[in-house]
């Protein structure tokens, strides 16, 4: 094993020399303005992050997934976290980033205990999965993040400039106007996507960057370039912590410090070169000898269980790993700096928090930005909009055709006195059926569309919320941005229906009725998108909206439902209110000729309350959105607990 470690040591120094020359770093030049920009925007750059005895106990598993871990990470360090799969790496960095609350212990920023809320504001977290909206360009996505995260203190010109620097630093100029795309559509490369993912967090000009496997899925060259970039950022004073899985030796050589985890236990924290001695002293032979030091280390700590964990409690092994002497007070809330003489940063926590909050765009600006982004997204989802419009138009056309033979004569009532004796057979049901058919048609068109519009935002909302975006502003902006789309769809449906059916209702009124019903069904789509698996959601949304639409008070009649004492159930559904408004507006022009009161009573509707009907549609659609918002927030909180 000695020769392997020796060759690894040589390779580290060789690589150090190579990278220190910085000749091979294509980003160096473009990074310089970015760093200047960071210094301007991140005047709080350079704080220390410490953690003391943090553990995570999962009650569902009835075991710890992270045993008490402690350490200090100083500004300007590039720290790698390594360990076998399932050893708790992601769990540890999520605690450091405030995404998961520890069961015990505390995380300190500048030697002050920091809650998960503080950490979330101050630590930028790049998740392993690239959760990015596919319909935006690279520049739009990064600019949006910058506007939200630091738009409170910088004007748009400065932000644009900052994003230019950032894009240049990340080597993304050639694709800055390309759509990000996803696995199903045209897309930028995996490496570029990863760099966009990191840029979304760097857009906040953070002081600490925590990344979960930033090189996963990248080829060797792309992985090295991403890690080199992170190293350069750390050299500018940022704390950079990243989980890294089997790095090649050049990447390993970039790390300043290494934290090793095995089976949820911290087994080492110290300089990358000291990890060599640690593995040697551990006395656990790797299964095979590799020229890659990272492979050798992972292999060795994977065998720790065979050697017995007690070997790790030896003070020699632990000395470099956990600076226990640095903790002045283990139980107190303040620490007085560590024994290595690193002074505590001048930035007090309240001041840092205040600055982080000031930097963020105000709530209404976030809602405005989310609305603009939603409009851009929809303008690029042409095929989905076309499908929705076509469905609305075809269903409007078919219903219109089926009514064509009535030539607009959809109602036959009893004449008012003195013409009552001239009355022929009455027909109230046809008009009630029109309401139900319209509801079914809109349900077909809007149910799946509502799901699609919100389903892909579900993960993004979660990520952005955790990064400090306001979820309610996001939700409101998204809802407002969907109104033009609903209006276009409602207009197509109403036009075809009106043209062929020629009902008595005024076109403007019909359009508003349809628009509000679209609003309800889109809201229903939001609820389904929040509750059901993405692949099942469109079909489920259509099914539920068809059921809701069928319960419109036509069959069974609302009057019959009332006799069953079940009207309170029916009025929860939007179909009843739409149909009542439709019924009213069609017969009100005839009220001087027919006994409309008896007609309405026979079906079960109430006359002359169209504004109440429309208000109820608005309320129901809004309630659906509130429900979906609560579900999303609840599930997001559950994921974090
Ligand atoms: N929310 C959770 N509920 C239950 N178990 C969990 C949860 N999150 C993680 N675990 C378990 O905790 C352990 C550590 O998970 P973690 O994701 O931190 O590992 P990891 O080191 O990042 O693994 P990998 O390298 O495969 O990403 C695993 O056994 C995992 O199954
Ligand atoms: Mg992981």
From TrEMBL:
Keyword annotations of the record: ATP-binding, Membrane, Nucleotide-binding, Transmembrane, Transmembrane helix, Transport
Transmembrane segments: 434-455, 510-532, 539-559, 614-634
Protein name from the UniProt record: Putative ABC transporter
Pfam families hit by this protein: ABC2_membrane, ABC_tran
Composition skew (Basic and acidic residues), residue ranges: 332-341
SUPFAM superfamilies from the UniProt entry: P-loop containing nucleoside triphosphate hydrolases
Organism name: Aspergillus violaceofuscus (strain CBS 115571)
Locations listed in the record: Membrane
InterPro entries per record: AAA+_ATPase (IPR003593), ABC2_TM (IPR013525), ABC_transporter-like_ATP-bd (IPR003439), ABC_transporter-like_CS (IPR017871), ABCG_transporters (IPR050352), P-loop_NTPase (IPR027417)
Gene Ontology terms: cellular component: membrane
Single annotated GO MF: ABC-type transporter activity
Iron-sulfur keyword on record: no
Annotated region described as Disordered, given as residue ranges: 323-349
Protein's membrane topology: Multi-pass membrane protein
Domain ABC transporter: 49-288
């Amino acid at each position: 094993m000695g020769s392997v470690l020796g060759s690894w040591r040589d390779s580290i120094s060789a690589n150090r020399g190579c990278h220190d020359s910085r000749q091979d770093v294509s980003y160096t030049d473009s990074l310089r303005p970015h760093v200047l920009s960071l210094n301007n925007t991140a005047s709080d750059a350079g704080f220390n992050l410490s953690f003391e005895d943090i553990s995570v106990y999962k009650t569902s598993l009835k075991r710890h997934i992270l045993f008490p871990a402690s350490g200090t990470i100083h500004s300007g360090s590039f720290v790698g976290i390594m360990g076998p799969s399932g050893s708790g790496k992601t769990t540890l960095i999520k605690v450091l980033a405030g995404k998961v609350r520890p069961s015990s212990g505390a995380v300190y920023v500048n030697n002050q205990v920091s809650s998960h809320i503080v950490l979330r504001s101050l630590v930028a977290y790049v998740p392993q999965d690239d959760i990015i909206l596919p319909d935006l360009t690279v520049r739009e996505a990064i600019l949006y993040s910058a506007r939200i995260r630091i738009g409170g203190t910088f004007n748009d010109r400065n932000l644009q400039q900052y994003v230019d620097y950032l894009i240049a630093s990340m080597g993304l100029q050639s694709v800055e106007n390309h759509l990000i795309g996803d696995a199903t559509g045209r897309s930028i490369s995996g490496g570029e996507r990863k760099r966009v993912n990191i840029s979304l967090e760097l857009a906040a000009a953070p002081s600490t960057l925590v990344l979960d496997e930033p090189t996963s899925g990248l080829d060797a060259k792309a992985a090295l370039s991403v890690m080199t970039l992170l190293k350069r950022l750390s050299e500018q004073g940022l704390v950079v912590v990243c989980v890294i899985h089997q790095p090649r030796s050049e990447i390993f050589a970039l790390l300043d410090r290494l934290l090793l985890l095995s089976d949820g236990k911290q087994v080492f924290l110290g300089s990358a070169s000291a990890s060599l001695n640690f593995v040697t002293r551990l006395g656990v032979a790797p299964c095979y000898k590799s020229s890659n030091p990272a492979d050798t280390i992972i292999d060795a700590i994977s065998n720790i269980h065979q050697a017995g964990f007690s070997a790790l409690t030896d003070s020699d092994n632990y000395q470099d790993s956990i600076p226990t002497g640095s903790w002045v007070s283990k139980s107190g809330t303040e620490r007085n700096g560590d024994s290595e003489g690193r002074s505590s940063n001048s930035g007090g926590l309240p001041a840092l928090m205040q600055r982080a909050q000031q930097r963020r765009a105000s709530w209404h600006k976030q809602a405005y930005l989310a609305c603009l982004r939603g409009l851009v997204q929809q303008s690029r989802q042409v095929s989905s909009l076309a499908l929705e419009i076509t469905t609305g138009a075809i269903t409007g056309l078919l219903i219109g055709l089926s009514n064509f033979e009535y030539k607009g004569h959809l109602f036959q009532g009893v004449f008012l006195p003195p013409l009552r004796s001239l009355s022929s057979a009455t027909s109230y049901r046809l008009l009630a059926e029109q309401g139900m058919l319209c509801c079914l048609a809109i349900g077909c068109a809007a149910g799946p569309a509502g799901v699609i519009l919100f389903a892909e935002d579900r993960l993004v909302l979660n990520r952005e919320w955790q990064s400090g975006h306001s979820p309610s502003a996001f939700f409101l902006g998204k809802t407002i941005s969907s109104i033009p789309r609903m209006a276009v769809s409602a207009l197509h449906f109403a036009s075809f229906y009106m043209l062929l059916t020629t009902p008595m209702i005024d076109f403007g009124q019909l359009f508003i009725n349809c628009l509000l019903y679209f609003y309800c069904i889109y809201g229903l789509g939001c609820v389904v998108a929040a509750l059901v698996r993405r692949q099942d959601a469109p079909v489920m949304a259509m099914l539920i909206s068809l059921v809701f639409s069928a319960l419109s008070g036509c069959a069974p009649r609302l009057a019959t439902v009332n006799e069953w004492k079940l009207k309170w159930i029916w009025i929860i559904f939007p179909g009843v209110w739409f149909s009542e408004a439709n019924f009213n507006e069609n017969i009100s022009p005839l009220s001087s000729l027919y006994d409309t009161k008896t007609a309405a009573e026979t079906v079960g509707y109430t006359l002359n309350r169209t504004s109440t009907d429309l208000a109820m549609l608005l309320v129901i659609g809004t309630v659906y959105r509130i429900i979906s918002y609560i579900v999303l927030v609840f599930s997001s909180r559950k994921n974090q607990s």
